Amino acid sequence: MNFVWFILIGLVAGWLGGLIVKGSGSGFWINLLVGVVGAVLGGWLMGLAGAGGYGLLWQLIVAVIGAVVLLLIVSLFTRKRA
């Protein structure tokens, strides 16, 4: 059941990250996928930093931060040239 919550939090984080990082042109599905990957990376990095917290809100905040950072990195590589 934890895996299902993890996926749902990652999907919501990807959606919120896509709203925060506007104009990247990645698309809805890519934002959701990047949100799941960002949730994994964000949780892992926060665990390494010792800034762990508990609860749904904390997990969502960490996942959104990870998704936003990852979306910014993806937008650097997928930016269209004029």
Task: Write structural notes for this entry.
This protein has 82 residues and is mainly alpha-helical. The chain has a domain at 33-76. The chain has helices at residues 2-20, 28-49, 56-78. The longest helix has 23 residues, at 56-78. The mean pLDDT is 78.
Task: Put the structure in a nutshell.
The protein has 82 residues and is an all-alpha fold.
Oligomer: single chain
Largest sheet, strands/sense/barrel: none
| Morphology call | globular
Report the total helices: 3
**What helical percentage do the residues reach?**
over 70%
**How many extended strands?**
0
Structural class: mainly alpha
User: What is the H-and-E element order?
Assistant: HHH
Proportion of residues in extended strands: under 5%
**Arithmetic mean of pLDDT:** 78
Radius of gyration: 13 Å
Distance between the termini: 46 Å
Low-confidence stretches: none
